[in-house]
Design brief:
Blueprint (H helix, E strand, L loop, with lengths): L10 H19 L6 H8 L4 H18 L5 H4 L25 H5 L2 H11 L2 H4 L4 H24 L2
Helix pairs in contact: 1-2, 3-6, 3-8
Length: about 150
């Protein structure tokens, strides 16, 4: 697993990583005809982009649920406090972004926004294994369209 903070690279570099992965899958399966989605399905994998988002969400889960997790990461995220009984639990407070480069595109804001977009049953899982198992289908189906438009703007 690559470090989560290294997941933020330019759209051009993300495209390079994806094309490199596609070429590697073509070599491994000796298949020059199939699409990238078909190759990923054969390898039972997902895109690097989805894996980076998944690693980011797992890091947030660990920050919120493990006391032994590094303090510098735990201090990035705070649960939103509310006087009202709202539908969702474990919702992170979002910092107010002042700029795109250092606000909206920052790890703290982007990770919190992704965490809050997860369904409540996924955010409130009791163990990391169950969180990971419920995260996989939700990540691939629900978040890809939303996050792609958000991340590459």
């Amino acid at each position: 697993m690559a470090p989560v903070t290294c997941s933020f690279c330019s759209a051009r570099n993300c495209d390079k990583l994806e094309s490199l992965n596609k070429r590697a899958l073509r070599i491994v399966f000796n298949d020059k005809i199939s699409s990238n989605q078909q190759l990923l399905h054969k390898s039972e994998g997902s895109t690097f982009y989805n894996r980076r988002i998944q690693n980011m969400l797992i890091t947030i889960y660990k920050c919120l649920n493990y006391n032994s997790f590094p303090k510098y990461l735990k201090d990035m995220f705070t649960l939103r406090q509310s006087e009202y009984s709202l539908r969702g639990t474990n919702i992170l407070s979002l910092c107010k972004p002042f700029t795109s480069a250092h606000g909206i595109n920052s790890f703290r804001y982007f990770a919190s926004k992704n965490w809050n977009s997860l369904p409540n049953n996924v955010r409130s899982e009791s163990t990391l294994i169950w969180f990971w198992k419920t995260l996989e289908p939700n990540l691939l189906l629900d978040l890809t369209v939303y996050l792609t438009s958000f991340f590459f703007m």
